[in-house]
Each structure stands twice: as C-alpha cells, then as structure tokens.
Amino acid sequence: MSQKLRQGWSITRRHFKIIVLNFMYQAIWGIVLFRAIDHIVTPLLQRYPAVSMNADALQLFWAEIQFQLLKTDMIVPYLYALIALLALRMLITPILQSGIYYSIHGMSSGEPHTRFRKGIAACWKPMTIIYWIKSVAIIAPFLWLIRPLFSIQANPSAVYAILQKPGWVWLLFLLWVVTISLISYLIQLGIGAQLSLLESLQKGMKHVVKVVVIGAVIVMMYGLISLSVHALSMIWISLISFILYQLLPLLRSIFNFWLVSSQYATIGHDLNSSPQ
Amino acid sequence: MSEKPHSFLLLGLLIVVFLFATWPYQFQHAWQSGYTYALTPVNIEAAPAMAAVASNESKPSTSLPINHELGTISSQPALSERIVNYHIQVSLNEEQRMLEGEEIFTWRNPGKKQVTDLYLHLYANAFQSSETTFMKESGGKLRSDQATANSEGYINLTSLETLEGENLLPRLKYVSPDDANEQDRTVATFRLIEPLAPGEEVTLRLKFEVKLPEVFARMGYFGDFIMAGQWFPKVAAYETAGTRNRAEEGWNVHQYHGNSEFYSNFGVYSVKIHVPEHYVVAATGMQTKVANLGQGRKVVHFYAEDVHDFAFALSPDFITHETSFSTESIPGVKIKLYVDPEHESLAERYLHAAKSALAYYGKHYGSYPYNTLSIVVPPRGASGAGGMEYPTLVTALAADEKSPGYELERTVVHEIGHQYWYGIVANNEFEEAWLDEAFTSYAEEKVMENAYGVTTNHRIEAVYLTDPAPLKLNAWEYKDHQHYAENVYMRGKLLLLDIEQIIGSDQMNRVMRSYFQAYRFKHPTTAQFQALLEQVTKQSWQDYFDRHVYSSETNDLAVTKIEARQKEEMNKQFYEYTILLQQNSAVNRNVPIELVYADGSIVRKAWQIGEEANVHFVERSEVPLLYIQLDPDQSNMLDTKLNNNFIRAELPEKERKSVAITTTSLLDALLRLLSW
Which residues cross the membrane (chain A) (predicted)? Predict the structure, then answer.
C-alpha cells in the first residue's frame, strides 16, 4: 500500500499548480466566511456580559437570543444567505472535481502534463449529475429527519422531538450517507477515467475495499494534523497558530489530491483496461 | 309582583313551613349557614372621576320579575344597574352529559331609545363543529388543552316565547357580527313583538338543551365532573350613551372567539340546579336552599346579585371546605372550597391563597362586595376547566400534580384578582381584554410577592415579548393565542409596572384604588383608565398611551456605540470614552447608567431622558472602563431588547478572533460536508 501512496504522492506533487489554485479557491471561501461571521459575531460579542457583575446576566443574554431565534424571523436572512452560499459551492464543486479527477487519472496512466481544463470540458456533465443525485439523496432524508424544526416557532419543543428519535434512525441515516457518498465517489472516479456510469459503478465496486482502506489511511492522517492545528489555534492564539490555521486549506487540498491520486494509482489500471 | 298582599303573605308562610319541614334534608348539605347579609359598606373615595361617572348612570332597578319564592332572601340595595335578571331551572342529564333548562329573563331597556331586537349569546355553540369561529381561530386548542373526539357540544333553543305564550322562535336568526361566518351560531337575534320603550321591561321564557363537550376550553365535562360556564342563553350587553365612552347607545355583541372572553351587563340570577343526590354543586352566588326531589335527585338553589354571569360546577367527588373571612375592608365572606379528593391534603393552601388574595385586594383596591367566594379544583385531566374566573366562583388548576409548586397559589390568587377587574369593574373583554388580564396579572404579582415572597423575573418576561402588539385591540385580532396572551397578560402587566416605576408605588396604589372605586360595576374603557391616571398623577399620559397602549411601540434604550481613546495630558495617562445612547421614550424619565471599571469600582449616573433620540457623552478615567450597563435595575419595563443595554468598552482582539475563527471553521466544515 505504501507504494501506491508514494505513487499517489508523486502525482500529487506534479499537480502543484492546480493544488495552489484549489487552495486559493478554498482560501477565498474562508475569507468570505470569516468576514461575514466576524461582522455578525463581533457586535454580539461586545454585548456578551461575560464581565458583568450581575450573576443572571449571562442567562438573560442567552434567553433573549433564544427568544429572538425561536420566536422571530431574525434568523431567516442568515439561513437564506447560508443556503445561497452552499448552492453556489455546489455548482462549482462538480466542475472542480471533473478537472481534477480527469487530470489525475490521466497522469496516473502516463500523461506527462496536467489536463485540468480538458477534464472540465470532457466530463463536467456526468460529474454534475452524479454529484447532485448524491447531494439530493443525502439532503432529502436529512430534511425529513429534522422536519419538526420547520415548525419550531409554533412548537418550541420541536428540538426535543428530534432528539427523541430513536438512535437507530440516525445510525441508519449515517450508514445511508456513507454508502451514498462511497458509491458516488466510486462512480466519479470512473467518470474521471471517462467510463460510463454503469462501468464506473461495476469497476468501482470491484475495488471498493482498496478504495476504502486507502481513503481511511489518508483521511486519518489529515484528521490528526487538522485536529491539532484546530486545537492549537483555539488554545494557543499566536501568530504561528494563526498562520498554521490559514494554511489548513492548503493542507486539505494536498491531502485531497493525494487521496484521489493514490486511489487512481491503486485501481487506475483496471479503469484503463476497459474497452473504449 | 303579586297585586294581592294576602296571597303573597300566604305564599311566604308556606315557604317558611316548607323550609322547616325540609330542614333535616338540608342539614347534611348545610352550606348556607350563617351568611352575612349585611351590605359591605362601599368605600367611596373622593376620587374626582367618580362624580363625572356617577352622573352618567341611570337609576338602577332592583326588581326581580318573578320573585315570589325569594321571600327568604333579603335583597340588597343594587350595586349595579341590573339590566337583566334571570330565573333558570336547569337539570343535569348525567347519562347523556346534557343540561336541560328553562329560563325566564327580564331585560330592561336601559337606554333612551326604543329597542326592537334582542341579541342572545349561545356560547356553547362554539363547540358545534370545527367550522365555528372559536374552533377555527383556536384550532381546537385553548392554552395547552386540545379538543378531544368528544369535544363537540352545542346549545339548542327549543322554545322562545313571551309570558303570554306567543312563540318567538320562528323569528330567531343567527348572526356573526365579527366575521360573517355562517357556520357560527354563537350569537342569535330576534325581533320583539313590540318595540321596547326606554325604561320598559320585557320578560321572555326559553327552553334549551346543552350538550356538554369533553372539556378543553372552559366549559364541559370530564368523567363525572362538570363545569358549566357560558351554558345558558344570555342576553348580550347593551350600552347606553356614555357607557365606555360610547356616543350612541346600542348592543355590544360579539361571537365566541378563539382568544376572547366575555362581556355582559350586570343583573340578578336565581338558578335552580337539579342533580343526582350525591352530586356536590358549586355555583356563583349563595346557595339558598337544597330540596330533595325523590328518586335520588335534589335541587340546589343559588342566588346572586350584581353579577354579570353565572357558572356552576358539579361532581360527586368534591370534598368541601368552608371558612369565613373578614378584615377591615372585607366585612365577611364565606370562602368555599370544592376540592378534588386528590388535592384534599392541599385544602389549606387553597384557602390560604384565597384569603391572602382577598386581604390584599380588599386593602388596596376596595371591599369585595359579595358574600361568597367559591374555589373549584377540577379533577386530574380536566385542566381545560381550570384557571378560569366566573363571578364569585373561580377554578384553580386541575389536580394534575401531586404536589404542585407556587402555581397552585398563583392561579387562585390570579382568578380571585379577576373578581375585581373582570367581575366588579367588568370591562369589555372582547375589545379591551388587557384591562382585565393585565390588571389581574399585576395584582396577582403583588399578592404573590406580598404573601409568599415569590417574585417574577421581569427581564425574562420583557425579552420574551418579541412581537409586541397594541394593548387595546379586539381579542381576535391578535395573531394567535400566544400573541394574545403575551401582549394582553404580560406586556399589559409590564406597562402597569412601568407606570408604577415612573410615578412611584404610593401614587400607583392611589391610581389602582381610584380606578376600582370609580368604575366598579361601570364597564370602563382604556381611555377612562387613562383619564383617571391623568387625574391622579396630574400629568398627561397621552403620548405614552398612544405609543405603548394604542400601538405596539416598545421603549428601547440602547448603548449603540463606545469609542475608547488613550490620551495623555500633563504627563498623565488616561482613557477617554465617547458613549452613544439611543432612546425612544414617550415620557421624561430618569434612567440610571452604571459604569464599571477594571478595578471594580462602579459609577452610577442618571440619564435624564428627554426629547433627544440620540445622546452622547464623554467619560474620562485613569482606570480602563470595563463595561456600561444601562438601566441595571430595569426601571424601564417596556424595553424588550435588553442585550443592547450592555456594552463592553473594549473587545479583546484575541477573544474576537478566536470566536470568529472557531465559528468560521465550524461553518466551513459544515459546508464541506456537502461541497468543495
């Protein structure tokens, strides 16, 4: 496996420009989000009576916020903004994915150069379809599960109604999300190799164990690093931790590329051997 | 009245003989012992408004039309106008949970114009179908009690005729003055045979049957327990010119709404209730006699004067307690408790709460003018019947909890408070519910604090008011029950407390007392309360009422901005803060500002609120300022946004960044679950 990881790493390194591009894309989102949140949080924070001599002050602060959230439409514009943000990202995501998967697959099967733009042109359509099917398959049952929240203003105990759902419902949902994500990922790898949907699924399923194991290893590595950076930036606020934090999207980009590259390195030969 | 005095005497004698003969039967239900018939001396304060109101009043009538059997009752001088008098015989059909009744009412035209049509409230028809105005507006739910499959009910008028036997039923038609809902049959009207001249009386005889709903909204049954409120055909309120500042006289009639309670003229009620022998009967007014009818049934007679409604509760399980209570201002009241066996052990708490309430209200507002006060504790599950006021009868919370907290006392104190505002002052609850609910909530709070040391968190209440609405608004025009309740009960109460903050407790006590004294039995309006407030305080409250009562403005005080600068003068370092304040107060008032410094020192300043919406001031100090708290003791009760009363002088960059970054990364992680 370490050989495949090394192979993947070398492909990743050769995609440096695209990684930087991807990092910039992520960083822009980070900045936009940070600005927006800072704009909302700072005035609130200035009203936060942590330093007040009045013992009830904190409780009252939260009570007012709770009533504003539960009894007014205050949250609605923020929710819409969040949904718009998510929708925009969901439009861009499959386009990025088609370029990256195609290019990585090409390189893992011997192409000397990155082919990011060609990849977008070649497979943005099937990539978008699969991505949106997957998203709807995850979002729809999630909305169904949290539907008591939509009437929370009329019935403030809706939160408890959700929490009181038996654990297996959530477990089942989680299992569903993992399965759907895995299947759609396998298909997307196939699409990157310009296979048809059915072929992608067939070949992907054949290698599902390898894909999962490699995925788990890389995600774990990233998780460890990311967690420590997050912890560091929360506990020890300094310039270094701040810079590290700002670099996280870069790290994430690198790991993401590494993940895809390693997986193509593992199963790419099989994806290639399909009759064109 | 009989024309022949000797036959009247004979009848009286017969009644006395009958009473003695049936004495042993009554004894086991002896509830009528030792009533104090002496009239409570009316404590008329020389309130300036009094004279003006009194001159408006027409001469009260004390006559009861068919009064022969009431020879044993010494009728008191009328306290109210007594526009309508009822004689009702009602029989419980416990198998079918129905009431079968016969009613004779006499209505006197109190105005200066002829009256051609009468209006009747048939409130029980609110439960007739899911299409009635009440059911549509309430969604079949009142407070937290939901209608059940058995919650349909109705009142059916089977006969309506003159004493001469002329049938008026064909003339009856249902009207919906508020919403033209044809499915709503809670108001009926009919043309009289002859137009009724001013001061003339008309007496009509009705027969009716009521199918009781399983209780979720005030009236109905639960098991063997029956709460009969708004159960009989009731004449609507007729207002003379001047009543409630009305320019022209006429009916004031509204349907039964999801969010509305009631409004009627005062009168006299004589009601005989036929029930199975083992039932205990609680009702408005005083019980005058009990007679066995044989076949396991009895009739219990109640009589009430100067009330505007009559309610009764029945249960074979009630355990009864009785105590008499008198203070300097309450000359003598029998407090009667009809408690569900599950709460028998709590009887003392109920009685104590009632006494505490009466004592406080008597002392602060005026004397309780009736001889009885009954408290009914509905059984577990019948909470729909609980927490409701009727003249001289209140229902406590249902006996759902084994050992309830102060909500037991609070409910009793609250409902007894209603006796003063809903019962005696008797404002129009359809159109100005706050005059009852807010005043009662205000009074209740005073008793709870005074007698039990229980205080209310007004800050939480204030910030809970996220959707303020005008206080003077038709009850059904609020968005929903919650909107109605939080404005009419809570915002109204906070407004009274706010007035108290501005004028001081002594003045406020004078205002409340004068208002009660001047308007008892008079159906006042918001404007009349305002006028009285202005008379007592000798200042105009127009702007205040315009903004906070007639419209929904809150009185939001805020620290909008603080700017810090470090300066140096003559080698001395100090901080200079520019502080920006904002207000939209309707009255000039003093609000304290608390400045708290890093060394723990606190400086209090008074903000003399005037006309300016924005005020800024500069503060210098050698020690850095920690924060500013506006109105730390919440002297301004109408501010519903309290978080903006507080601001930190400086927000440490570190704290700001760490919160913003954490939030950003959480949100980003959330977005990344679904997208790149």
Answer: 20-37, 78-102, 123-147, 167-187, 208-225, 231-251
**Total Cβ atoms within 10 A of residue B180:** 9
Joined tokens for residue B41: 């001396």
Query: B558-651: which CATH architecture?
Result: Sandwich (2.60)
Binding site of B, by residue number, is 414, 418, 437
Q: Does A55 touch chain B (CB under 8 A)?
A: no
- Determine contact: A156 vs chain B, CB below 8 A: no
Write out chain B residues lying below 8 Å of A38, CB-based.
656, 660
- Residue entry with tokens 């084994």: B402
Torsion over CA: B667, B669, B671, B676 (sign): positive
Q: Whose structure tokens read 């003598």?
A: B332
Q: Does the distance separating the beta carbons of A52 and B646 come in below 8 Å?
A: yes
Cα separation, A184 vs A133, whole angstroms: 9
Rounded Cα distance between B84 and B73, Å, is: 19
Query: What are A213's two structure tokens?
Result: 């194991």
Give the model confidence (pLDDT) of B379-434 as tens digits. 999 999 999 999 999 999 999 999 999 999 999 999 999 999 999 999 999 999 99
H or E element: which one contains A71? Answer: helix A57-71
**Contact A52/B671, CB-based, under 8 Å?**
no
Beta-carbon contacts of residue B575 (< 8 Å; ≥ 6 apart): B564, B565, B566, B567, B620, B621, B622, B623, B624, B625
Count structural domains, chain A: 1
When mean pLDDT is compared across A24-28, A153-157, B393-397, the lowest value belongs to: A153-157
Domain region containing A14:
2-272
Query: B676 vs A139: CB contact, 8 Å cut-off?
Result: no
**Domain spans of chain B?**
558-651
Pairing of strands B602-609, B572-582: unpaired
Residue type, A208: V
Please tell me which residue, A192 or B374, carries the higher pLDDT value.
Answer: B374
Q: And the tokens for B335?
A: 């407090």
- pTM of this structure: 0.84
Angle at A233 between CA A228 and CA A238, to 5 degrees: 130
Closest CA to B316 of B374, B375, B275: B275
In the stretch 226-245 of chain A, residues with CB closer than 8 A to chain B read: 230, 233-234, 237, 242, 245
CB contact at 8 A, B284 and B364: no
User: Model ipTM?
Assistant: 0.86
